[in-house]
Amino acid sequence: MKTIEDRLSALIPQSTLELQAYQVQDASEFIKLDAMENPYHLPEEIQRAMATALQGVSINRYPDPDCKQLKNAITHLWNLPEDLQILLGNGSDELIQLICLALAHDQAKVIAPHPSFVMYKMIAKFCRLDFQAVPLNSEFALDGPAMLTAVQQCPRSIIFLAYPNNPTGTLFDEKVIRQIIEASQGLVIIDEAYYSFAQTSLIHLATEYDNVLLMRTFSKMGMAGLRLGILLGKGPWIEQLNKIRLPYNINILTQIAAHSVLAHWTEIQSQMESIISQRQLLQEQLSSIEGIVALHSYANFILFQPKTVSAQACFQGLKKQGILIKALGGDMDSYLRVTIGTPEENLKFIHALQQLM
Ligand SMILES: *Cc1c(COP(=O)(O)O)cnc(C)c1O
Question: Residue 19 has what pLDDT?
């Protein structure tokens, strides 16, 4: 008699059996500074507008498969160049998956710096693609020669570059990114998940080069619960990727809710600005604690390293005081990542950390 385990190992690829499902820490009752969420509620005016808009929704009908209204609003919001088309995903995670599915091939490979966003590797694996991590240098900058070698060795590479990078918060050098794009026969995806906090963008590269796509998300700007990712690229790329997208991947509630938020953007914008100024403050406060080394961040989180106690002890100590941050683990296990919260949350975090050090 076959056990269910026998059946699984006979049927499911080894690379999938070896994966662990994406882990999310239980955060109820904690000050939640672990997941790069916007700490602020939706302003009341937007809540009301959204509630009104959602009241009239026909959920008995399939949603607009092309999300035309929402795409127009996004084009307007970011004043997008005319030669870029939009593909929307159920979070940018879905867009990463779409790209991997579309380009999956025996000789294809996903290449990303390390450390970077963990989903690049995970999605590559379950799309049956090889994954190659190219270590960042000691300053967490791109190792140009190593990236070029990796890219040149694989003509069908799918290269993910997060700008700013997660978990380091750093911006990679545009010159090195251009070298990678120019050396690559494959596709380069610039992931601007933290665009709103970086105050800079590489969107011009998606216009300039035929092998570059640009990705953004609404998650980090206060809509993580809606699940809306945005991929920008030249028409022919978007046309091919769109064939693989499931027809109604953006549900009607997300379409309408996101549209209501976009119509009141100045209020979201001011939340982003307050997070940026809180980041600067937190950065100074972290650096002034003896025994803490904090990286300069362009995102809504800060990577730091406690030098006098272990990162694990620091993480647990904060947790005991009701503050949840992220312990990176693996070869980054001496580092911790804290998401910028409200001024009150940040103050509690800094006080708790001072006591621990
Ligand atoms: C959070 C994050 C994403 C995923 O965003 P979703 O739109 O919520 O799926 C993508 N890329 C990077 C670098 C991230 O940190």
Answer: 87
pLDDT in tens, 310-321: 999 999 999 999
Query: What is residue 220's DSSP assignment?
Result: G
Structure confidence by residue, pLDDT tens digits, 49-62: 999 999 989 999 99
Q: Separation of 92 CA from ligand 1 center, angstroms?
A: 6
For residues 148 and 179, what is the distance between their CA atoms, to the nearest angstrom? Answer: 8
Q: Kindly state the tokens that stand for 255.
A: 């379409």
Entry field: residues in the chain: 357
Q: Which atom of ligand 1 is nearest to the CA of 220?
A: 1
Assess whether the C-beta atom of 228 lies below 6 angstroms from ligand 1: no
Q: 82: helix, coil or strand?
A: coil
pLDDT at 21 over 90: no
- Strand ranges inside the chain, DSSP E: 31-32, 85-89, 109-114, 130-135, 157-162, 187-191, 212-217, 229-233, 292-294, 301-306, 323-324, 326-327, 336-339
Residue identifier of the C-alpha nearest atom 12 of ligand 1 = 193
Q: Do residues 19 and 125 lie in contact, with contact meaning Cβ atoms separated by under 8 Å?
A: yes
Residue with tokens 């730091």: 304
CB 237 within 8 A of CB 214: no
| 22-78: pLDDT as tens digits | 888 788 889 999 999 999 999 999 999 999 999 989 999 999 999 999 999 999 999
In angstroms, what CA-CA distances link 315 with 104, 129, 168, 270, 356? 38, 34, 17, 31, 10
